[in-house]
Amino acid sequence: MPLALNTFFQRIAKGMPSLKLKLKQAGLDYKPEDFIKRTFLSAFYMTTGLVVALFLVLAKLEVLKGVVFFAIPIIFVIMFFYMIKMPDLTISKKEKEISREIVFAGRFIIIELESGVPLYNAMLNISKNFDVVGKYFKEITDKVDLGTSMEDALNEAVEFIPSDDLRKILWQIINSIRTGSDVAKSLYSVMDQVTKDQINEVNRYGKKLNPLAMFYMIIAVILPSLGITMLIILSSFIKFQLSLTILLSLAGFLGFVQFMFIGMVKFSRPTIEF
């Protein structure tokens, strides 16, 4: 049975060829099949816990408990596909952290190079002065210290860096090393493009806030207040009893909607500093 499960996990891993790269970019030291196995077991445990809790709630409310058993595969599939996306969420988080420092780090390395500091020393200084971006430059300098050429160390780093902006900078450095051109001058155009992209991202976020604010007013403010009032009035006509359980359930649902809205706004906010 364990052998059959391992084969099953390996087949799933083969169906997700990009998973290996995503795990590397997310900094997760797992083989694709091992990660899928951990995800499968975690989804199973979480589904079991949710099903037991839901069964106890429905039993107390004397509602149809058989619905829980039909919901088991649905809950498991949702949990599995949600947790299999964890590398993507980690990559997105790392990319935002890099975006917060990328403009300052890019300007820093340009100033260092224009001041006559060698490229290796400039990278070493970045690793000491920037917490997030510095980690990736520290890996490059460590490889150079172990005997790897600068170009090879940069090529290895580019493959696993979870940020397009930082990847552009490293690619420009690699091209400058190959062609023998001035690294500082070639980085100017890249940094201008990165800065413009971040400004455009801030502008897009500002335009997105208006419909989000309207959505929040309608869903979280207007509909709950008017809806509860109309529900109370209608319940008196159709002799429908609004119990405390129903009111608490509605309050919990509204709280969940507001929590999701705040999370959505926070997640879409660009983590950029100028």
Description of the structure:
It is a single chain. The chain has 274 residues and is mostly helical. The chain folds into 3 domains: 2-84; 96-197, Up-down Bundle (Receptor-associated Protein); 211-268. Helices cover 83% and strands 0% of the residues. It contains 11 helices and no strands. The protein is flat.
Which features characterize this protein?
274 residues; mainly alpha; Receptor-associated Protein; 3 domains; 11 helices; 0% strand; flat
List strands and helices in order, with pairings:
Elements: H1 2-14, H2 19-26, H3 32-61, H4 67-83, H5 86-114, H6 119-129, H7 133-145, H8 150-160, H9 164-179, H10 183-237, H11 244-268
Helix pairs in contact: 1-3, 2-5, 3-4, 5-6, 5-9, 5-10, 6-7, 7-8, 8-9, 9-10, 10-11
> Helicity, in percent?
over 70%
Tell me the name of the CATH class of the largest domain: Mainly Alpha
The overall pLDDT, averaged over residues, is: 81
State the shape.
flat
Q: Please count the beta strands (DSSP E, at least 2 residues each).
A: 0
CATH hierarchy: architecture of the largest domain = Up-down Bundle
Helix count, per DSSP?
Answer: 11
Radius of gyration: 26 Å
Largest sheet: none
| Class from secondary-structure proportions | mainly alpha
